Amino acid sequence: MTPRLTSDLWVSAYLRRLQLVNIPAFITSKGDATAGAVIVKLNTLDGNACAYHRSYDLDGNRVWATLAEGVERDVDASLNKQRSFDPDIWVIEVEDRQGRHLLDEDGLSG
Hints:
Layout: H1 7-20, E1 25-29, E2 38-43, E3 48-56, E4 62-71, H2 72-85, E5 90-95
Parallel strand pairs: 2-5
Antiparallel strand pairs: 1-5, 2-3, 3-4
C-alpha cells in the first residue's frame, strides 16, 4: 500500500506547483489537516467554473472527477452544500482563463 500524503501537505505542494507556472490559487476553505477531502474549483474568470474532487475510476484508480460545472454561482452553491455536511473539506480556488488546473500532471493526477 502506498502511503498517502496528509491533506495540508498535498495542498501546499499543489499551490507551489501552480505558483511555479504563474497560475493564481487560493485556499477558500481550510479543512482537516490530516485527512480532509480536497476540492479544486477552477474559475475561468468568464462567469463559469468547474469543481473537481478525488474519486475512483472503474479500475479502482484515484482520479479527479467533476463535482459541479457551469455558472460560477451555481458551482459555489454546490460547494457550500458540500461544506454543510462535511466541514473538514478543503476548497482550493484556481483562477485561469485558459482553464489550466494541472490536476492531470504527474504527482497530482490521483
